[in-house]
Write a structure and sequence with these properties.
The structure is a homodimer.
Chain A lengths: L3 E3 L2 H8 L5 E6 L5 H11 L4 E6 L19 H11 L3 E3 L3 H4 L7 E3 L8 H4 L3 H16 L3 E5 L3 H13 L5 E5 L19 H22 L5 H14 L3 E9 L12 E10 L2 E10 L6
Parallel strand pairs in A: 1-4, 2-3, 2-6, 3-4, 6-7
Antiparallel strand pairs in A: 8-9, 9-10
Helix pairs in contact in A: 6-7, 8-9
């Protein structure tokens, strides 16, 4: 079946009225294999797969890349058609925000840490637009990538705390052969920066190895890793070992862990993370 | 049909899965003819009428009447059965808030004026619980009374700004023969206070008459009315002539108006309002 491209809410709602089940993949477009992986996962969960493409002004800070964020609708639609998506919802800013959005979703306190510390208001904007999109699409299932780990955590909280009747399914981070996590922002990198960018995932793997070998001074490991990247020209926002259940700094008793990092190559901010289960007993 | 009393979300969702259409009346219980009027309106709009009874801690301030708020479940259920409601949803605080509600809905700026000025955080709590209840019940139609005019305004904004697929229907304020607006809080009044309480609606009617006679210095009218009630022993929170469309202070060009008041008899806070169309041209 052909992909339906629908830019307005009324048409989308009318089209979805007869859908027996809906899986939803919200995106900002410039789709890569990470998004397509989510679309394919979505097809396993519902008969109608809806993908939204909307570069949401609310989640960009004043000095961020809203204007330059890559917009590639034609290529995106080709990829979605090939992946078997049924509908792509492509609202304008006016369609999503016909009046000033004075009401927001206040995210949980964890939104002020990690990426939220460097991007104040970012997760307010994410939670607000995702709630709006959920109410427009009314899916039974929604899919998010694990690369945006903190975002995934906050969306799960949104669903839990606001009693949304939606199952959230997480897709594994898709990577280049080099290990570099796929991201629309990788397109900003020069070839030299892109080569160096591989080091972010390697550093996270080194941290996991260190923890698994029995090192448990997480603060020291974080500081050393951060210093290592800084010496190589990175600007490090954070490297942090956290509890996967709470996203709070990991304690000695936590075994389900995630190590997360955000660091810049030039003006390009990259993020990545690895979930892991600590394989030794606490000392 | 008998009224179903359902205290938990899972049972309610299962029961509503087969409902062809749902109208929803959220309440805090202690039902009076104002609530019953909404239930009867609801029956005109859907085949299944759900009423919730939940005294929501989130919308009470620290020094307010959460503990003493009247809880009269048995009588409420009798009234709902007689009025033809199908389901009453009676969740516990733990059912609605199984974990700390760290995420909130930020209401629009108007939430800081009128009742919001005297009750900081009140409309955050209202908007948050109403959004949760909407997501639990998933009605096509929801009904609110005009007595809580600012609340009704904020709920309409909630639906608009978060793209909720719900029609909001307003029920007219129900009154005693004396004109006193029905309210669960009227039960707090002594008989002398209740007699005096009638004056609130009479005062609002006097204000409407004054405006219709051509007086257009709204600030002066508000001040005079407030002084009048204060001299008679009331503690006046506000008396305000506003645009019905925006709830902002009415300007000379506004013709669709509402006059709202909140004032206390002893410890009991009463609110009331009158919508009206200004019947003379601006001078």
């Amino acid at each position: 079946m052909a992909l339906d491209i629908i830019p307005d809410i009324a048409t989308l709602r009318a089209r979805l009225k007869t859908a027996p089940s809906i899986a939803f993949v919200p995106t900002m477009g410039n789709l890569h294999a990470g998004h397509i992986h989510l679309v394919k996962l979505a097809k396993q969960h519902a008969q109608c797969v809806v993908v939204s493409i909307f570069v949401n002004p609310l989640q960009f800070g004043a000095n961020e890349d809203l204007a330059s964020y890559p917009r590639t609708l034609a290529e995106d639609c080709e990829k979605l058609q090939a992946a078997g998506a049924d509908i792509v919802f492509t609202p304008s800013v006016t369609e999503m925000y016909p009046t000033v959005q004075t009401m927001r979703v206040t995210p949980p306190p964890i939104a002020n840490e990690l990426c939220g510390a460097a991007r104040p208001g970012h997760f307010d904007g994410v939670a607000t637009v995702v709630l709006k999109l959920f109410n427009i699409v009314q899916p039974q299932v929604a899919l998010f990538g694990k690369k945006d780990y903190q975002q995934l955590f906050i969306i799960r909280e949104l669903v839990h705390q606001f009693n949304l009747p939606i199952d959230i399914i997480a897709g594994d981070t898709q990577r280049e052969d080099s290990g570099l996590a796929l991201s629309s922002r990788n397109g900003y990198l020069s070839s030299a920066q892109k080569l160096e960018a591989q080091r972010l995932y390697r550093t996270l793997n080194m941290i996991v190895d260190n923890v698994q070998k029995g090192h448990h001074d997480y603060v020291a490991i974080e500081a050393q890793s951060s210093q290592y990247l800084t010496q190589l020209g990175w600007i490090v926002d954070y490297i942090s070992i956290r509890s996967a259940a709470t996203l709070l700094p990991a304690s000695a008793t936590d075994t389900e862990l995630v190590v997360l990092a955000a660091a810049r190559q030039g003006n390009t901010r990259l993020i990545d993370n690895i979930e892991f289960t600590r394989s030794f007993a606490s000392t």
